[in-house]
Amino acid sequence: TLLDGLGLGLGLPEETARGLAEQCKKFLRDELPPEAHAAIEAAANPGGDHLAAATGDGAFIDRDGIFGIAPFAIPRGPATTPKTMSFELSAPSTRRNAARLLRAMQLPKPILLEGSPGVGKTSLVSALAKAAGHNLVRINLSEQTDMMDLLGADLPADGGAAGEFRWADGAFLAALKNGDWVLLDELNLAPQPVLEGLNAALDHRAEVFVPELGETFRCPPTFRVFAAQNPVQEGGGRKGLPKSFLNRFTRVHVEPMERSDLVHITAALYPTVPRLVIERMVHF
To answer: What are 179-196's pLDDT values in tens digits?
Structure first.
């Protein structure tokens, strides 16, 4: 997980970050005995096919109240799992990305996903939440977001008297109370006061203090925070986040889909179409 997130969130080009990770893996291979090399490759490529036949890694786990991709699993949530999924988790690249995400979830830390636009960061978290029986609350951040949007505010009471206000929970606080998963999308577009306001919920304190209510809300065990962002060099007002803030996250790189993924997904959606026709369509 450490090598996978190396350089993410710091504005380094993706090629540079991948190069650093490869150099670290080469160093480990040089320093460790040959019998440990297979374990290095398995750790660097969770959910891959290279060792699946021998170790069972990459196989889906769905039993006894847990869900995951071997060897990583998480407890199931209380939500009902749909019988059919619109997202194909078994596609090669998607399975590897899901395995990286599940590996990061073995630690009780927030998770930051970074990858190019359109690689499926949001869809991946949403699909994993549905498959594992957890409710997901997606919050799209921007330069105009403030803490009132996340925690709540006093609003005019519906059907109340003139001048009557009642507290209304924001999306983040409501999800925390319910023990849901939260996805903070476009994290590097959020203004600094929002990042500072989230600090206590992201670090070891795992709590949120609401001054208007004078209450502190503890994060329940089922509450998880995910964040997603595009690389800084994509522009659009994105900024590099402080290292002290990034250190609160386990960082996960989301790799883009390949041609084999598109063939796999199309074949799963349209099983009656011959494989050769699908391969020609994707190649075209």
So the answer is: 999 999 999 899 999 999
